[in-house]
Structures are given as structure tokens and as C-alpha cells.
Input
Amino acid sequence: MHPIVRLVLQRVGLGLVLLLAVSVLIFLGTEALPGDVAQAILGQSATPESLANLREQLGLNVPATTRYFNWLWGILHGDLGTSLTNGSDIAADIGKRLGNTLFLAFWAAVIAVPLAIGLGLVAVRYRNRWPDRLISGMTLATISLPEFVVGYIVMYLLTVKVQLFSPIATISDGMTLGEKLYTIALPVLVLVLVVLAHMMRMTRAAILNVMQSAYIETAELKGLRPFKIIARHAFPNAIAPVVNVVMLNLAYLVVGVVVVEVVFVYPGMGQYLVDHVSKRDVPVVQACGLIFAAVYIGLNILADVISILANPRLRHPK
Amino acid sequence: MSRIPLSALIGLFLTGTFFFVAIFAQWLGPYGLNEIAGDVWEEPSRTFLLGTDTVGRDLLSRMIYGAQVTIFIATMATILSFVTGSILGFSAAVIGGWYDQVLSRLVDLFMSIPSLILALVILSVMQVSIPVLIIVMGLLDSTRVYRLARAVAVDIAVMDYVEAAKLRGEGTGWIIFREILPNALSPLVAELGLRFIFAVLFVSTLSFLGLGVQPPLADWGGIVKENKDGLVYGISAALLPAFAIAALAISVNLVADWVLNRTTSLKGGRGA
Output
């Protein structure tokens, strides 16, 4: 087998093992912690009978290991269980919301990634001059702000001060793509702001690292234009770290999405998760937690695989 | 110590002010935390310097009490994460072997899920209270401290003076606290600021989602949540705590940057 195929398979296999471990962790986190799920749902004033009933209904009288394997078996067959609060099928509920969330995250990524790389290149070109300083300053500011604060500042500026958008991003099936994009413009903008700074800063660092190589000096001495040196000579060699940065930030979008969806009342996974955490709907929380973790781990593995593929030394072993 | 850059001075001053306000909140707040003193969403005036909130409570007083709750939780969580993270990290580096392997893989596992998601999963079955919040946040964050502490301690554990201590017959406790801790202190102190900011942002986010500090207590994230509906009508009450969070984060960041620069400029990252 080609060594690179083996490496990639290894990473994917490791990821699957990790995901399995995460499912155990999520299960333990909700079922084995001190405290009783039934008690948590019904509150302190519950009668012993209603507690016993609920335990029976939740199947809490079966040993935890059996419950875990039943749960896992169900998930592998696409059955995420039923919600405690309204008895609906979780898989059906999540299906649509997951689509909405991915739609939001996709557009945020489409805008943020090229922008971050472009600005990173600009920052390198003018390093230690005002464009670089300005970019670094803005980075510090956005890193210090939690997502929901960025969300409300943007909302205040663009829906109240300048009435461009609606503060609520509710999308439905009947909308055309254009209408949908207009509706999600604000949440997308916030997500872009949240990941942009970090992505840009790390792109800058990755390219600056390459800029110290001897061949860059050669290119400079050859008299090439600075931008051409960065774009043609430095950037291709910085692809692996940059891809890594991009993927890590996309994984970070997973977290950002939870908060931003709540801010803009967007019907996605994040809002679904937060709603059901406060309702103590454990099966829904487990399912959502697992899906978020799977996306996060998946993106991390993808980053690993791409940086393996982008490394010529691994692609053409001696 | 002689020359402190201006940015660090500003950061120190602002951080100090925030902590001062947090500690003496009971004496500084002009009104009580839940005292309904005026009309709903009054404009800032002489009596209400920052206006009133969604049910007519004085916003300035709530901000001051909110500072106390936010900073208290963030500080306690940071302390907890540093104590557990660094003790586990140092001991993993000193003891090594299977102990190190088990701990490190466990930490890898915890870090493979975003903290917010894991916190939400755990908080869905716990009665949310301040001690629970502190423990959940502190332990989740201690994985980051563990990584750093272990990385630093692994380098120190191979030094001659550690070996000398081992040959002298000192126990693991001595080696961790008397040999490694003093030499690993400065990178950890630099990290402290960043972890504190993270804790502030984390608790604010949780409270904003309604899963953190519960009423009648209030923290900054919770105040944003209470007043967010006014924003659409042009009432900016929700932005005040938001700015407070940002100001605290930036000022601590300025101090942390300075500490980081100072410690890395010393050879080997040691000293003070």
C-alpha cells in the first residue's frame, strides 16, 4: 500500500476510535454524574411515585452499560431516540435543523476563508506598517469579545442605527436562495468576524515563518515584486499550516454557531441544543452533543489529512 | 520592574478597577441588586447614571453586582483549573509511564470536544448553581493547563538538579513543589491571564444562554440576556455589560501580553 494511503487510513481510524470514546464520555456525562436524571427533570418537589414512573419510562432501571450499547446501536441505525418533552423523533427534528446550520456555516466559511487568507497576505506584505498594525489591533479586539456580544453590536448597528436588515433570521422552505441569503446576512457576518481574526493572525504567522527561508531571499535578490514573492513562493509552502488553521477555525465555527443561532433566533442545531438543555431533555442533548463532536472531530481529521497531502515529502517518499 | 510599558499600565489600572468594584460591590452599588427603583428602561439621568433595565432596576447597580458575580466565578474557576491542571501535569511529567499515558489520553479525549458543547451536555443534568458552574468550568479548562504544565515540566524534569534531588532521596511531592513548580511558574503565570479571560467569556456565554448564573443573582452575560429585547427598539442597555466584558478581557490581555513578553525575554523563561 502506498504509505500515504496508510497514513490517511490511520488518521481516519484514529478519528473513529476517538468518536467512540467521545460517545462514551457524552453518555457518562449525562448518566453517570452525581445526581439523578429523573430528579433533575422533575425537580426537588417530585413525589417518589412520579420519580419511579419516569425512571421506568426512561429505562433508567436497566444497567448503564446495556443502555449505552442500546443507545449506540440505535445511533448506528439512524435512530436517535425520542424527545422527552414532546415525544417527537429526534432524528427527524435534527435532520432539517442540521441542514439549516450547515447552510449558515457554509456561507460563513465561503466568505471568511478567502478574506482571512487575503488579509493575511496583506499583513505579511506590509508587516510592521500600518495595515499590519490595524489588522493586529482588530484581532485583539475581536478575540476579547464573546460571540454574543459581537452579535448584538452588529445587530444594534445594522438593524437599529442603520435599518438594513431584520434582527431575526428565520428561514423557511418557501424562500428563494436570494431571500435566504438576505435573511442570514447578519448571522453570517457575525460568524465571519468571530473566526476571521484568528484565522488571519495564524495565516500571517505561517507565511512569515516561510519568509525566512533562503529561497525567499533569492527571490528578493532576483528583484521580484514583494507581492509576487509572497503569492508565488511563500504561500504554496505555507499551504499545510494555513489549511490546518482554516480547518481548526471551521471547527471553531461549530461553537460559534450555537451562540449566534440563539442571538438571531435561527432555526438550527445550536438553538435546538440550547433549548433542550434548559428543558433537561437528555436524549436530545446527547444526540446534539454527539453530532457537534462528530463534526468537530471530522474537521480536525480533514485538516490532518490535507496537511499530509500537501506535504511533498510525504507524497513522494524516497 | 523598572519600566512598565504604557499599554500594560493601562491594563493594570483597568483590571485593578474592575477587581476593586467587584470586591466592594456591596458598598458601591447605589441601589440594591433586585430593587425596583424606577420605570422600565429609563434613559440615563442623575438618579440612574446608566438608566434602568427591563423591569426598572438601576442598571449601574446591577452592573456592579454583576461584576462581582462574573469576576468571582471566573477567578475561582481559574484557580481550580490551575491547581488541578498543574498538579496533574507536573506529576504526569515526573512519574511518567502509564500514569502519564492515561492522563494525557484522557485530556486528549476531553479536548476533542468543544468545551461549550461538553459543558452544555453536563449542565443539562445538573442543578445549575455557582459551585457547580465553577467546578464544571474549572475542570474543563484544567485540560488546557495540564497540557502546558506537562510540556514545561517535562523539560525541567530532566535537569541535573532534579536528578540530584531524586538521588538525595526526595519524594515526588518535594520534586513537584520544590524543584519543578518554582521553575515552571513564569510560563504558567503568563497563561493565567488568558485562562481568566477565557473563563469570563465562558461564564458570560453560559449565562447568556440561560444556563449559567440563575436569577435572582445576575452576572454580565445574564444582564445582556435580560435586556436584549430592548435592543430592537434602540435601547442600548444590553450593550453596556457587553462592553464591560470586552473591557475586562482587553485589559487583562494587555497585562498578560506584558508578562509574556517579560518572561520570554528572560533567558530560559526563568526568573521572577
In short: The domain at 100-275 of chain A is CATH 1.10.3720.10 (MetI-like fold). Chain A touches chain B through 52 residues (CB under 8 Å). The CA atoms of residues 273 and 285 of chain A lie 6 Å apart. Chain A has a mean pLDDT of 80.
